[in-house]
Fold this protein.
Amino acid sequence: MKFFLDTANLNEIRDVASWGILDGVTTNPSLMARENMPFADLVKAIGEIVSGPISVECVSERAPDIIAEGRALAKAGPNIAVKIPITIEGLKATKVLSGEGIMVNTTLIFSSPQALLAAKAGAKFVSPFIGRLDDVGQDGMELIEEIVGMFENYAFPTEVIVASIRHPRHVVEAALIGADICTIPYAVMEKLVKHPLTDLGIERFLKDWGKVKK
Ligand code: G3P
């Protein structure tokens, strides 16, 4: 499974990149808005840290505008994936941009048919938002299971990015299903490493090490 970091924060990206397990980054306008930096500078700075795919979102709504915006975003580097919300206009733009070799990450996926259409249009990634489904009382992980199953049935090369992750179990369940990628917020990334029994074990071993004859 590939691990992406779901953030536009440079300190978080630098930190997790130093752990040696970071495969890419996903951003969205809400994450960008939290950073005190001009958009283009931020995208460039992320690109200087991360060599894997970096998703950057289009905000245009009509296909010709999405296509123009996507082409402009993709100029920031060969590893830019243009994030496009799933709409009919978005599908049209996905077909064109994917045909030009630009990676498209179809975002705001909340149903299986949405993912199927994105794959047919040539999206490199689909991003189902599981936490937001859980929030409204649906089972987000069921959606991942269906999408992964559908893509396997037809050998679609589109990769599934499990997005809107809220806690470590989401990551484990996504891995058990065989989803390609989890995009994980920094706070959850830290929780993946931590366990109170590990901390306690280290503390005890260090204490006992002090008693070992040297
Ligand atoms: O990658 C999508 C993600 O940023 C959405 O997460 O927590 O806003 O539902 P959230």
